[in-house]
Amino acid sequence: MGILVAIEGLDGAGKNTIVGRIREQAQHRGITLETVAFPSYGRHVTADIAAEALHGRHGDLSQSAYAMAMLFALDRREAADDLRAALARNDLLLCDRYVASNAAYSAARLHQGPDGEVVDWVGDLEFGRFGLPLPAHQLLLGVPPEIAIDRAAGRAAADATRAKDAYERDADLQSRVWRAYLDLARVQWMSPWTVADGDDAVEQVLALVA
User: Is residue 36 a contact partner of residue 96, using CB atoms and an 8 Å limit?
Assistant: First the structure.
């Protein structure tokens, strides 16, 4: 049985890049792994509806923090069996965003701390009611908002298919999300956390399965 490691961070923090580097190093070291990214755009209808709402569709759906959080949670619920199967056949399962992303964004939207009602609700819903596997470790990429926002803007400018959504366009929200992530890491929400970037981030994850 393998371990699940969640890679968390702001939009533009470089999560996909770090996941790719970990995958490459793991293969060199004979570590079996699979990767999955959330939200599951193009695979699960709940994720696609959430994306559409964040780009202005579906009326006032995106105005409700709880409604959006439920869509993202249901997206992961659809993947729960696949996650457990991947853990059974690999040493490592990497998730590019996981449940903590829902907790951080929801807390930031509602101006709550890590002990707030919405963070408890997300944990109870996803790990409790939906039975998602707990991560063995959660890695927060240490890229602050001012850098991540610039990267996300550059990415959107270079790729017409990557237009920024309502969350990504809101710099104040991104700053609050960053603080929410740091708070979750500080209280070690649901499992051990570390904050790192670059080579340190890669090595910290691989050391868990060495």
Answer: yes
